[in-house]
Amino acid sequence: MVTKRLFLGDREEALHLCGEHDTNLKTLEKRLGVQIFARSSTLAIRGNVRKVDEALSYLQDMREKIHQDKLEMEKQKVRTGEHKIETEHTLFPRPEGSMEEPLYLAANGKKIYPQSVQQKKYVEAIEKFDLVMAVGPAGTGKTFLAVASSLKELLSGRVRKIVLTRPVVEAGEKLGFLPGDFYDKVDPYLKPLYDAFHLLLGQERFRIYREDETIEIVPLAYMRGRTLENSFVILDEAQNTTPEQMKMFLTRMGFRSKMVVTGDITQIDLDFKTRSGFVHSLKILKNIPEIHVVQFSEQDIVRHPLVRKILRAYSSSEEGPSSPS
Length: 325
Known about the structure:
Elements: E1 2-7, H1 11-18, H2 23-32, E2 35-39, E3 42-47, H3 49-80, E4 104-105, E5 111-112, H4 117-128, E6 131-135, H5 142-155, E7 161-166, H6 182-201, H7 203-211, E8 215-219, E9 231-235, H8 243-250, E10 258-263, H9 277-284, E11 291-295, H10 305-316
Parallel strand pairs: 6-10, 6-11, 7-8, 7-9, 9-10
Antiparallel strand pairs: 1-3, 2-3, 4-5
Helix pairs in contact: 4-5, 5-6, 6-7, 8-9
């Protein structure tokens, strides 16, 4: 016996999926011999592994149809002039020329859109290619958009699991001994990934997904020996991998999986910067057509306007910061 969970979106989606007085769920329980429990924003399906997977697949297909019907209604409103264009109510407003539909709807109801031409190409590449490598400075949305894309794939049923990893490398300062168990020690390194999920999923939904390992966030060292199938895998801060680590990570890819690798080659924290596995992989994999590389620039930065100016000042400085006298 196993138990698997399905996250429910808004109240309207839950109502359509469960049916009035949960009639849809009761019918599915009777037909497949499983138990389905509706718990706040989650459906828990319990029973034989094959039957649970069948029920989960059915509900995911049903949810996808609900989404498609809703999108068609929105398009009809646009055609009839009933739809109001939203800008101020979106987390990332829809720029001119961006995607018609939002990439993702955050937990707070805000719509997520790519904010630049390059970000749009990045999102489209993730949909099209199984392996995408994103290169660029901080604040260009490399990790955030990858996380949003992974959730879109998960909720549509195209993948069953999200795995996020990053190398545990200190950024120029030694943190010394950290108290607690393994997870307490590595959590500070993985915090930026938690932030993205808290914003997009909400803390409670993220907690549920982590508990049943639908979402897994682990240090890169713990990826060795695994084969990740039917998964969306993100390697963050890839500039801090060694060539051996990068090779190990890329060869974890299994069937029906996607990988996104993000990094900023101007912020390498390794002792031997020339040995960055990310830089090495960009050179040796460039002639493989199934691997797509997206190059971001300071024009794609969506943080505070000062960030762009700070990065420009550093990149234009030939000598770097002066030594203290």
